[in-house]
Amino acid sequence: MKKLFGTFGVRRIANKELTPEFASKLASAYGTLVKGRVAVGGDPRTSTTLIKHAVIAGLLSSGCKVIDLGILPTPAVQYAVRNYYDGGVIITASHNPPQYNGIKFVDEDGIGIPEEMELEIEGMFFNENPSRVSYDEIGEVTSNEGLIDEYIDEVLRRVDHNAIKNAKIKVIVDCGSGAACFTTPYLLRKLGCEVTTLNCQPDGFFPGRNPEPTEDNLQELIKTVKATGAHLGIAHDGDADRTICIDEKGSFVMGDKTFALVEKQLLQENQGGLIVTTVATSSAIYDIAEEFGGTVTATRVGDLLVARELKESDGLFGGEENGGLIFPDFVYGRDAALSTAKIVEIMALTSKPLSQLVAELPAYQSVKMKAECPDDRKQEIMDKIAADTQEYEVDTTDGVKIFRDEGWLIIRPSGTEPIFRCFAESKNVDDARKMAEWGISLVNKHLEN
Ligand code: MG
């Protein structure tokens, strides 16, 4: 059992649990395993500089050379590592509130490190000590000033620049004061879009809005899209690996719709291909694959599992229902910049408004609920639910996914919180809600016994 790592990295309250001592020791344990050139970058949180310097000290002490990339999106670090370095450390708490921060380690392909390596790092952290090199083996810290421009240029190369330019798309961009402030507004202007920015000054207090791009948190963006007659609203989370869209009518577009839209485009462009996603993703992804000559593989929930599967199976495209899209020929992780460019490209090539593009997708309704459950009872309850639902067709890749006539329901224990997540999908919202409620009732029933 892992003691420190969650689904991707370590996330804690900064300078309380995630202290410089903690960060430095963890980084030297990672550095002991890598012993090479390690890129370090992070989001604009108030604690990022503090933790980054501790991480750099830890890496140097274990004999690594460090390339300090500064403040930039998580996928830009992953891009840099894949192309130039032996490993990478990202200081970010993604969409969490400002008091949090986190440390993500990636391998030489820029993919989140595998569980075995996390366990090795924890072993060194708690039991043995990381190795410390002698004074004459300490490496240096350098920078890579051109990296962000290169990352933006690589996105530009992957879309039809002229088509987008000619479409003259008006976009409102809400970076939530996160790492995307350094990329998305510049990217869209280079693509010839007319850009208005909202919360595009980096600020670790996130004064404009909460860094999680939920519909509630994006009300200002929605109002601005409506008031200005823009064609599109774009929002990112704190570390700019996720893109959320608002259509020209001001409607919030669910992440699985964006995923389906880009999937359709890529399958058409490539005449088929392998799509990788998680078991919690919409049936629309399967419907589109079938229609456009693709195949789908589903992994356990977690973006790094999708990324690894894409690499191992040479997949075309992958993603999650939360709007995290993975383009494996670019970055082995969720990438918000190429997601944004692809959306405007699709709008330009089809000359259709986003609301219409979404309306043309297979229609499913989803409902997400959660039930509290202590961590030490999760396995027992999971086993009981599996025994309880034997009359149905089930998939146990992650938790229990139950297929019924009206749709499907997945019940799975959260990897980071003392809760079960129940996620249901159906052709109509009432059926989805009823199935999600049924899932909650199954958890509660076994919890009481
Ligand atoms: Mg994120």
Return Rg in Å.
22 Å
Return the CATH architecture of the largest domain: 3-Layer(aba) Sandwich
Shape: globular
Count of individual domains: 4
Q: In angstroms, what separates the terminal alpha carbons?
A: 26 Å
- Catalogue the unreliable spans: none
Helix content: 25-40%
What is the number of E strands?
A: 20
CATH superfamily of the largest domain: Alpha-D-Glucose-1,6-Bisphosphate, subunit A, domain 3
Strand order of the largest sheet: 1-5-4-2-3-6
Bound molecules: magnesium ion
CATH topology of the largest domain: Alpha-D-Glucose-1,6-Bisphosphate, Chain A, domain 3
Mean pLDDT: 96
User: What is the SS-derived class?
Assistant: alpha/beta
Description:
With 449 residues, the chain is an alpha/beta fold. It folds into four domains: 10-147, 3-Layer(aba) Sandwich (Alpha-D-Glucose-1,6-Bisphosphate, Chain A, domain 3), CATH 3.40.120.10; 163-252, 3-Layer(aba) Sandwich (Alpha-D-Glucose-1,6-Bisphosphate, Chain A, domain 3), CATH 3.40.120.10; 255-335 and 347-359, 3-Layer(aba) Sandwich (Alpha-D-Glucose-1,6-Bisphosphate, Chain A, domain 3); 365-448, TATA-Binding Protein, CATH 3.30.310. It contains 15 helices and 20 strands. It has helices at residues 20-34, 48-61, 74-84, 115-126, 147-157, 161-167, 184-190, 219-228, 255-270, 283-291, 303-312, 336-350, 354-359, 378-388, 429-448; strands at residues 10-13, 37-42, 65-71, 87-91, 100-106, 141-143, 170-174, 194-198, 232-236, 243-246, 252-253, 273-278, 294-299, 317-319, 325-326, 365-372, 393-395, 400-404, 407-413, 419-426. The chain binds magnesium ion. Magnesium ion is lined by residues 94-95, 237, 239, 241-242.
